[in-house]
Amino acid sequence: MQSLRVCLAALVLISLAACGEADKPSVSNIGAATPETKPLADKNQPVRVALVMKTLTNPFFLEMEKGAHRAEKEAGITLKVEAATQEANVEQQTKIVEDQIAAKVAAIVIAPGDSMRMVAVLKKAQDAGIKVVNIDNRLNQEAMKAAGMAPVPFISVANDAAAYLSAKFVADKLTQPTEAAIIEGIRAADNANQRKLGAEKAFKENAKFKIVAMETANWKIDEAYEVAKSMFKAHPKIGVIFCANDMMALGVIKFLQESGRKDVLVAGFDAMDDAKAAIRKGEMAVTIDQQAAEQGYRGVMTALALLRGEPVPEVVEVSASVVSADSLK
């Protein structure tokens, strides 16, 4: 039975590699093939992999967890899921990683809350012989080099390109000169920065739009509500707003509803169920599905490939798609 599990897991990894090539060619490979593939676990000592996420208060990460558990079931391993209470709580996420190092897990799959500040503790994990896989938000490459950290596989969407699609969707719906705003995620997170750049590009390439406000709400719904209140007080003519995740978009929508504003197009990112419901109601224009479950699944399977000594792509981009009223029909 165990050998069958290993064979099945190997077949899945082969298919994942093919998918990665279909989405976008990998930058390079990490790891080296070994002449003999050894079973990763037996019934008495299953391989332990830790999935460390930013938080479980955002439904996006609950979907990511589901995908990781699917990989756990297929591969016959033990998955430990940990997350900080808030996405900005880097200290807590650092402590979680330290605890996994002490527990001597075989691999850590992480969606880091901060692209730079998480590097030091993940270097400790590598030094302890733990395989590291980076998903969702990319670790800062310069910080990794400075710390002497070895390259790690990265699995996510092309955040700039996906955000461009979201912002362009709403931009294309307007024909008159319009003021635009962008609500960013945590600025120390690479994916937040990439999404801001993508939205900026979509608005700036259209001469009708003028970006009048850009501010962070740190991925939070309540903070986005307050940021929107401040933005619209200073710039009451804002007609379109891009939010770097759906949680913040929902905060903006709450403010707009309370203000009686029905003339503002809201673009989001994540394809949360609540965001889809808002799109169906006409409260939100668009969001982006970045396949959270697929990221979690591929993250765990990539970790298992590394543990077998198999080469894996350095970068795998999961495909992203636009979610609008038309696609939800």
Describe this structure in words.
- The protein is α/β, with parallel strands linked by helices and 329 residues long.
- The chain folds into two domains: 2-156 and 292-318, Rossmann fold, CATH 3.40.50.2300; 159-289, 3-Layer(aba) Sandwich (Rossmann fold).
- Helix content is 45%, strand content 19%.
- The chain has helices at residues 2-23, 59-75, 90-102, 119-127, 141-147, 159-171, 190-204, 221-234, 246-259, 273-280, 292-307, and strands at residues 29-30, 48-53, 78-83, 107-110, 131-135, 154-156, 178-184, 209-216, 238-243, 265-267, 286-289, 312-313, 315-317, 321-324.
Care to give the gist of this entry?
With 329 residues, the protein is of the alpha/beta class. It is 45% helix and 19% strand. The chain contains eleven helices and 14 strands.
What are the SSEs and their pairings?
Elements: H1 2-23, E1 29-30, E2 48-53, H2 59-75, E3 78-83, H3 90-102, E4 107-110, H4 119-127, E5 131-135, H5 141-147, E6 154-156, H6 159-171, E7 178-184, H7 190-204, E8 209-216, H8 221-234, E9 238-243, H9 246-259, E10 265-267, H10 273-280, E11 286-289, H11 292-307, E12 312-313, E13 315-317, E14 321-324
Parallel strand pairs: 2-3, 2-4, 4-5, 5-6, 6-13, 7-8, 7-9, 9-10
Antiparallel strand pairs: 1-12, 11-14
